[in-house]
Predict the 3D structure of the following.
Amino acid sequence: MRVKDLVGKRIECTCGKVHEIPRIDILLVCAEEVVSSSTNALFLVDENTASLVEVPRERCLLLDGSERVLATMENVEKTMEKLRDYEEIVPIGSGTLTDIARYAAFLIGKDFSCVPTAPSVDAYTSTVAPILVHGVKKTFKAKPPRRIFLDTEILKNALFDLLRAGVGDIAAKVIARMDWVLSNAFTGEYLCDFVWEDLKDVLKEVLKSTPNVLKREEKAVEVLTEGLLVSGLNMTIVGNSRPASGAEHMVSHMVEMYYEEKGKFPPFHGLTVAVGTFVAMKAYELIVNGIELPKEDFSLAERERELKEMFEEEKVREFLKTYKEKKIPKVDLNKARKMILNVYEEYFPLLEDALEEIGVRDLIEDLGRELLAKIVRLSNTIRDRFTVLDILDSERTLKSFSEWVIQQV
Ligand SMILES: [Zn+2]
Ligand SMILES: [Zn+2]
């Protein structure tokens, strides 16, 4: 299904819920038209995006960051202050500027439309905004855009790493689906099939056309953008990130938090997601092929010690609390294998190629294998969301998996 067929719909779904999909105008335009159709809007830009669209200087707020603008509460406040005199905010940027604008508009009741400058994340159509508050990432309720202006000329000329990242963030949806199906079967978590049905075809197209995305071919970049927009809507449809985020996002999230802890900029979101996707694929390979790794204890004390090597005490305490409260069920591996086999056989060959194309092995080397192994065995600590890594944990193979997976690079 295409994204335009989804917006504004009311769906009585087989999952038992009625899904109201927000009305968003998705407009294929050349960026100059944005200015003429947004007469009482404030434009939000940063140093990288300021030159992409010619906007009236007096209606433009430039956020500057030494290296990269971050979605911090300070930037949200700065934006709100200026936005008071306007009816609408239009960020010209990728995930970060969109999140800042979306949250600022929500807080003071203004309209919000956006001009994505890179097909790098699925955040444009979502309704939540992850914002850093005193260095801690919190996810706030915000609002969906009224209009999304897509200018293919801008999107296809995005930074090369943002194109790679876009493929990484969309590749994750295969893992997210499998994790969710297993969680439904073994923990009884609610599952909606509609948000897989609406994405699966465009997802396949994106994975197949990865080489062309990287060659900046118009059609391929449009398909990637479409996939990301549908994925963002899926989160809005279900009301949380489950359809878009599984084990791979927990690995990514832990990498991001580790960089932030060290006061460094993490790699672009989709790039760490790609690393997480590689890891989760290997975990599914074990299950599907019945590969048995040595069972090894990974005690709570050991977990705590390793977490403390990476994070300050308060965070470690919070993570361990989450982990202790997490109920990890015993999983019938045969049953699990049967449930995911279809998706595995259909998508994994494509996923493998796509990850190869975007250079996932280089990303892992950049991160460092030892650090990755550690993150692999710790990442199921940070969130109460059942994933394939929890299955390995309950099988007592998580620790040996973390060493095995880095040998597979
Ligand atoms: Zn993501
Ligand atoms: Zn549903």
Remarks:
- The chain has two domains: 22-156, 160-407.
- Residues 160-407 form a domain with the Dehydroquinate synthase-like, alpha domain fold (CATH 1.20.1090.10).
- The mean pLDDT is 95.
- Residues 304 and 317 are 9 Å apart (CA to CA).
